[in-house]
């Protein structure tokens, strides 16, 4: 931190003619206080007990009068802040105006005192927001003193590290304006460097320490009138070193050296247009530099976005243009530069290439799954960058040719800027990722706005009223917050997404611009529907629908309606969820920008019908969803991969269903990686739903289960997968393999009821296993709110109970449990004929056939059950031993 007027003791370049250096950090914001006592109370806690007394003695010695110690004029000296060759700076208090100030005592010999006082007074007349103001100038005991604003902040020496190019240029523009103001007043700073510019807590830069400032020389001044060199050699213009005329061009040289150093600290590649300006500004010959500091600053500011803002202001263009367009000002660029060629540099400022490579390399150090991510994420990011740069180039050329309306150009630019913002935010996620949240990254990366959507002019066209010009900057910030929330939803970080969405909603309400409020409410609901209390999303979606309809944001209204359908249809209000569907569907079909919302609507309606056990209606909606999804690009495209997985579930033809799920798995493997949890879930679904053969299913699911173990947090998936593999191995008479699988399931979750009970049974303790199964069944009593999947899980446990009871010799109890299993599973499988469910049903029939054969039952009864069991075993590749035993049952 730095205080106005102090000199840094860490300046390795040295100063001329200064010799004494001292600095003291400052870490509290500047501001006036209510009383001197309150200001004095801010003594640092680490100061020694005797510090005030010692300070008084030093000040007394300095001023030569103990009675005056601690005062200069009316100002009460509180603390020494820093020193340099031209003087010492103190923190002081002005009792008349009740404010803290910086007080500088200037070191000059007696013969120069009047000249120094005159120069200080001329500096006091220099009034500019970026020059530290001088409140008072005077003499105290033959000493010149200056009273200045007390500024707490950070010097520009270390500040640029890790900053973006645009930030650095903006900050140095402020410093340059301070120098330009001094030049207009006839002064040359002569010692501009990063240490002499402070970025205050209020975000404003102040140039300080005009102790070496002088009036500008006439460039034609005779060489016999040379000035003595003064300043810091590293930043000193050549003409100062040689004693030639000191003109404002000397400050240009120092400024360009400092800015070049700052850009080097940032680590970003310097754009050609900036490099050319800096090269000219630090030319050895002053006559080759810019005509003025103002000209230099205008050359640095020749930025496409800023040029376009000026054009918008003058030409009366559409409201959004001034903020959202950011390359169109290239018409004013140097014609030697290829038009619209700066896209790569613009994207680099969002996330620098070397930093990107370093972040990706770091992932490989975060465990086995981290090593699989780099080859997945690297190409995804490279492809995104290429697409963004291509779309930027095309959009820029279209503007230059006047190929589209200004309103459409605004929306195109907004789209590209949102993609660029998302690229930067994805970079932050990847850079800060830890082993526990690596799985979030691929979906997050693909939640960025697809650059190709920025050229979908039909989708970009809209009846939404543009915002008032005064609100454009704030609306841009809210939209960035909305995209931050969408990125977090894509990453599966729903709590963080909800926090970002709430911020966006609050800010949007304050602005009163309804279209952006509707978007914020939509993403708020989307985050909520992924949290445990997901029914809480309904109010957010309902308000989003109302606000979006009122502001003609039709695509937002339809998407909110589609998401609300899913929440209500699967939880709170299944019967009333689809009220108004005909109108919403017709609106979606008539809205070009609603292609994603329409596909999502059909997919969610299919899910609702499946939850209601209407398989036929579900399949119809999923087929419509697949047709609608064919034209979707950009945000949501990855979400719609689930349509194929859903079609695989409801397909009557199992071969066709398997093909659908395999396609979904292949897409997710390509987009997210083979070991991503979402990819594994669809691969697991294939092994559970469509692969009937026991040996094939066991071979297919085993590597899926092992891949799940790369993600320690996926406990439920690990347990479910290994339990299924254990049962498959048991069906294949691989008892040791079954034990190993159940052990892995129990290792993931000790109290996993089905796996733990089967493990006890496999280890030979049938009685204990039966008790465990019975307890697990009792823990899931039937209720009126039961869904079909609740009945399914109870049937799984009842099957295990029947198997355990049969091994204990309790044939009557076994028969009862097995027959109940069959009764519960058959109606479920008629609507949801998944291979895994059928395996449980087939195993229940096999176990029942063996149970009945050991009991005093009729041969006809035994025969019916045995025939069904044999038919299942032959279809799925059961063991010949079991088939032979069943065939021999009398």
Ordered list of secondary-structure elements with their pairings:
Elements: E1 2-3, E2 22-23, H1 36-40, H2 51-63, E3 71-72, E4 75-84, E5 87-94, E6 99-106, H3 113-124, E7 134-140, E8 143-149, E9 152-155, H4 165-184, E10 187-188, E11 197-200, E12 205-207, E13 214-215, H5 238-241, H6 248-266, H7 272-281, H8 293-300, H9 304-315, H10 321-324, H11 343-350, H12 353-363, H13 368-401, H14 406-432, H15 441-445, H16 457-460, H17 472-491, H18 494-511, H19 514-528, H20 537-550, H21 554-572, H22 581-590, H23 595-611, H24 615-629, H25 642-650, H26 654-672, H27 677-689, H28 694-708, H29 715-731, H30 735-748, H31 753-762, H32 766-778, H33 788-808, H34 811-831, H35 835-853, H36 859-876, H37 880-887
Antiparallel strand pairs: 1-9, 2-4, 3-4, 4-5, 5-6, 6-8, 7-8, 9-11, 10-13, 11-12
Keywords:
Transferase(Phosphotransferase), domain 1; alpha+beta; elongated; 890 residues; 7-stranded antiparallel sheet; disordered N terminus; Phosphorylase Kinase, domain 1; 4-stranded antiparallel sheet
Number of strand segments? 13
State the end-to-end CA separation: 93 Å
What global shape is seen?
elongated
Instruction: State the helix count.
Output: 37
| Biggest beta-sheet profile | 7 strands, antiparallel
Give the percentage of residues in beta strands: 5-15%
Nearest-integer average pLDDT: 81
Low-confidence stretches: 1-69, 304-337
What structural category do the secondary elements indicate? alpha+beta
Helix content: 55-70%
| Rg calculated over all Cα atoms | 38 Å
